[in-house]
């Protein structure tokens, strides 16, 4: 890992460099366009179903099956390792839809820290923090949320930017680790044939259309052991310890 630079963590090209793969992509292109149009239609129904059904295992199962039609497949590893008592999940960040995928497996909320608010925020599956103004206020709000009985766990991405998930992890921001003394890391690996998972500065809407265009996108979710903060351990030390629990990018 020492020989890799930060540029290796991002895909700056949407299309492959390999001539054979590029030729295969050109052959697939009309099929991909048809798939994208069909999946846009199906995606509207997935959204309506997810809105109409109350939160439950049945709802998550139905939506997960429908997402498979959209080309978004979910595979889990060590599902019994999920800690039902934890109030905070920490995950590496690969695509704009990671929070939606984790939410198919277990109820959790991901706050919208920046970007669109209102209907778009809600439609994308984010939890809007209306009262927060600044990082400190956000932390206080989420800390109170974590201490409230009966609320679903939070899901946070301390990298704060998406990467390709192959070369390593961006340095974790320390503030999420101040919310609670016990967290469960979630390792996410995403694979997709023919085209890159994401490119810098691409909008979530473009990423959604490319997801519909691609043959499939497979999300591999692994539940890692719960990590607790020790007495005298600083927040940054806690963050570093969680980041080193296991290479989340290992595939």
TrEMBL record:
Localization annotation: Membrane
Record has Plastid as a keyword: no
GO molecular function per UniProt: acyltransferase activity
UniProt GO BP: ERAD pathway
SUPFAM superfamilies on file: Glycerol-3-phosphate (1)-acyltransferase (SSF69593)
GO cellular component: endoplasmic reticulum membrane
Sequence ranges assigned to domain Phospholipid/glycerol acyltransferase in this UniProt record: 87-191
Transmembrane parts of this sequence: 21-42
Keywords: Membrane, Transmembrane, Transmembrane helix
Signal peptide range: none
Keyword Membrane attributed: yes
Protein name per UniProt: Lipid droplet-regulating VLDL assembly factor AUP1 isoform X1
Gene name for this UniProt entry: aup1
């Amino acid at each position: 890992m020492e020989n890799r630079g930060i540029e290796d963590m991002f895909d700056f090209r949407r299309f492959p460099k390999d001539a054979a793969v590029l030729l295969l992509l050109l052959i697939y292109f009309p099929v991909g366009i048809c798939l994208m149009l069909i999946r846009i239609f199906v995606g509207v129904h997935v959204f309506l179903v997810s809105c109409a059904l109350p939160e439950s295992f049945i709802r998550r199962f139905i939506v997960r099956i429908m997402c498979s039609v959209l080309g978004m497949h979910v595979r889990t590893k060590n599902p019994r390792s999920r800690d039902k008592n934890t109030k905070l999940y920490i995950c590496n960040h690969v695509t704009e839809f990671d929070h939606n995928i984790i939410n198919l497996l277990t109820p959790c909320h991901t706050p919208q820290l920046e970007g669109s608010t209102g209907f778009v925020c809600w439609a994308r599956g984010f939890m809007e923090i209306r009262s927060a103004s600044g990082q400190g206020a956000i932390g206080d709000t989420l800390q109170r949320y974590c201490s409230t009985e009966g609320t679903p766990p939070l899901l946070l991405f301390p990298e704060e930017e998406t990467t390709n998930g192959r070369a390593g992890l961006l340095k974790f921001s320390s503030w999420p680790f101040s919310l609670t003394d016990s967290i469960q890391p979630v390792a996410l690996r995403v694979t997709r044939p023919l085209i890159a998972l994401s490119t810098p500065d691409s909008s979530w809407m473009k990423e959604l259309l490319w997801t519909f265009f691609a043959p499939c996108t497979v999300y591999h979710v692994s539940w890692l052991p719960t990590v607790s903060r020790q007495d005298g351990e600083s927040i940054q030390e806690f963050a570093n310890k969680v980041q080193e629990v296991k290479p989340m990018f290992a595939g």
